[in-house]
Amino acid sequence: IFERDQQKRQQKEKELNEADRLKREAHKLAIEECRRNQIQYLKQKEEVEKKMGMLYTEERNREHQLQLEFERQKEAAKRQRNAEVMKAQLQQCNENAQKRSLEKTGKLEEDQKAIEKLKGEDDLFNEFISKEMNRFKIQGK
Predict the structure, then answer these.
(1) Alpha carbon distance 13, 11 (integer Å)
(2) pLDDT tens-digit readout, 89-103
(3) How far is it, in rounded angstroms, from Cα 106 to Cα 98?
(4) Long-range contacts, stretch 48-53, CB < 8 angstroms, 24+ apart
(5) Measured on CA atoms in the order 35, 36, 42, 45, is the torsion positive or negative?
(6) Which of 19, 89, 115, 120 has its CA 20 to 30 A from that of 138?
(7) What is the pLDDT of residues 9-42, one digit of tens each?
(8) How many Cα atoms within 13 Å fall on the side-chain side of residue 78?
(9) Could you give the 3-state DSSP secondary structure of residue 141?
(10) What is the dihedral of CA 73, 74, 78, 84, to 10 degrees?
(11) How far apart are CA 35 and CA 41, in angstroms?
């Protein structure tokens, strides 16, 4: 009986030791699984952060390109407006010069008419003087 009890006790100890060993081994496996999961998580997190960084950089570059394009369009529009203003000013200068030229031509024509009128009056005056001088000569004065 003693031997059987002792064998039962040893068997129980063996079973407890085996259960304990299996428990430790399961615990060890769980820890290893947890570490693997943590490493995998950190790798995935690093990849996601890397992708996010790349996406952010791409977005910033795209925004920068859009800003440059906006500035180029703005500058082109400004040059276009300036060219239109310059064209309008040049046209206005030409119109003003043409207007002054027409006014000058009109004034010259008026002056020419006035000169011809004065010349006609001068001719009448000279004719009158000539007649009066002839009359005075005839009268003997």
Answers:
(1) 5
(2) 999 999 999 999 999
(3) 12
(4) none
(5) negative
(6) 120
(7) 888 888 888 888 899 999 999 999 999 999 999 9
(8) 6
(9) coil
(10) 50
(11) 10
Count of all residues that appear for the chain in the document: 141
Tell me how far CA of residue 43 lies from CA of 40, 46, 49, in angstroms: 5, 5, 10
**DSSP, residue by residue, 20-83:** HHHHHHHHHHHHHHHHHHHHHHHHHHHHHHHHHHHHHHHHHHHHHHHHHHHHHHHHHHHHHHHH
Categorize the per-residue pLDDT at 110 as very low, low, confident or very high, splitting at 50, 70 and 90. Answer: very high
The Cα angle at residue 15 between residues 13 and 19, in degrees rounded to 5: 115
Task: Report d(CA 113, CA 107) in Å as an integer.
Answer: 10
Residue 140 has pLDDT above 80, yes or no: no
**Cα 5 to Cα 14: distance, rounded to the nearest angstrom:** 14
